[in-house]
Amino acid sequence: MTDHISKEKRSWNMGRIRSSNTGPEKIVRSLLHGMGLRFRLHRKNLPGTPDIVLPGRRTVIFVHGCYWHRHAGCKYASTPKTNKAFWETKFMQNIRRDAETRAKLQDQGWTVLVVWECETKKPECLRDRLMTVFSVG
């Protein structure tokens, strides 16, 4: 199957994809706030600029898109059929960078939590998971 739009239009579309303040990120923030947890956003002085930082708990949260960060076994982590070599390389770079970022943060004494985009589609289940992780409730 070939792409139905021009390279320029595809590039424009891809450039419109947000990397911060996404819908899933806002859901996680809302849940944390509802649990009485306070946090900071996008701390640039930490490796990988975590989406959410809970300084008092030395915990960072990355809200990963299943597609871009390759959530294993997730239906949203499909691979495009066209230009497959490019996409496989791109995805592998993302996975490698994510692992390096986690390791750097852990070396600095931070706990790293990843919330996947698909988890935000069932906020009640995600809230239960977060309550368990943060021993709230």
Automatic annotation (TrEMBL):
Top-level lineage group: Bacteria
MF terms in GO: endonuclease activity; hydrolase activity
Pfam family membership, one: Vsr
EC number assigned by the record: 3.1.-.-
Region of interest: Disordered: 1-21
Keyword vocabulary terms for this entry: DNA damage, DNA repair, Endonuclease, Hydrolase, Nuclease
Coiled-coil region: none
Principal EC category: hydrolase
GO biological process, alphabetically ordered: mismatch repair
Composition-biased stretches (Basic and acidic residues): 1-11
SUPFAM superfamilies per record: Restriction endonuclease-like (SSF52980)
Chain's role: May nick specific sequences that contain T:G mispairs resulting from m5C-deamination.
Family recorded in the similarity comment: Belongs to the vsr family.
Name the record gives this protein: Very short patch repair endonuclease
Record organism: Geothermobacter hydrogeniphilus
Lineage: Bacteria, Pseudomonadati, Thermodesulfobacteriota, Desulfuromonadia, Desulfuromonadales
